[in-house]
Specification:
With 206 residues, the protein is an alpha/beta fold. It has one domain: HybD-like (Rossmann fold, 3-Layer(aba) Sandwich), CATH 3.40.50. The protein contains seven helices and six strands, in the order H-E-H-E-H-E-H-E-E-E-H-H-H. The chain has a six-stranded mixed β-sheet. Helix 2 packs across helix 6 and helix 3 packs across helix 6. The N and C termini lie far apart (56 Å).
């Protein structure tokens, strides 16, 4: 959970209200515009949070919903069964980098913000910084990030997180998961290695 949104507000490329009719489609479009279209780097989503706090469960809910969809082109880490949180974040990131060669990572996390922005999904350049709002030294996560503003910041944040409505968090998670799923269907499977092989085959036939 990143409790402060001001750092990202200055850099957010887009904001999407989770209940807009085209929210999932707009998120998919933004992701496809941000993720390298031709790359040998595996695309990895790291969903951060814990089911021990309603407000902080956005990440693992997204991860679980994506796991159920069996994505063809993206990798997903952080679910309700195997959450990625403050205690194991560093270890999980090391495991991801061992398993995947130079992964392109999209960090997903919940955050708190202004009242008028509750329910807004943000997509921005650079990493999400879990724990920044509570002075925890945790690794930054992601080449880009997706954050969902689940409640209001500024006073008794942990109490606010515990009393965040699960209905809102679940609806936001579904929108984010649907957007990522739609992006996965449109994302080109062909990478640099495949392009090189195709080029070599063409050279042989010429």
């Amino acid at each position: 959970m990143n409790l402060k949104t001001s750092f990202f507000d200055r850099r957010a490329k887009t904001r999407i209200s989770h209940d807009d009719l085209d929210a999932a489609e707009n998120l998919a479009e933004e992701l496809l515009a941000s993720i390298p279209s031709v790359t040998s780097r595996p695309i990895v989503f790291v969903c951060i949070g814990t089911d021990r706090s309603t407000g902080d469960s956005l990440g693992p809910l997204v991860g679980t919903l994506l796991e159920e969809k069996s994505l063809r082109t993206f990798y997903v880490y952080g679910t309700l069964d195997e959450p990625i949180h403050a205690v194991n974040l560093s270890e999980k990131l090391k495991e991801i980098h061992v398993k995947h060669n130079n992964p392109y990572i999209i960090g997903i996390d919940a955050c708190l913000g202004r009242t008028k922005n509750v329910g807004v999904i943000q997509v921005g350049n650079g990493p999400v910084k879990p724990g920044a709002g509570v002075n925890k030294e945790l690794p930054a996560v992601g080449d880009i990030h997706i954050t969902g503003i689940v409640n209001v910041s500024g006073f008794m944040e942990f109490f606010v997180l515990q009393n965040t409505r699960l209905n809102l968090v679940m609806r936001m998670a579904k929108t984010i998961a649907n957007g990522i799923y739609q992006a996965s269907l449109l994302y080109p499977k062909q990478n640099w290695t495949e392009l090189k092989l195709n080029w070599l085959e063409e050279e042989k036939t010429n």
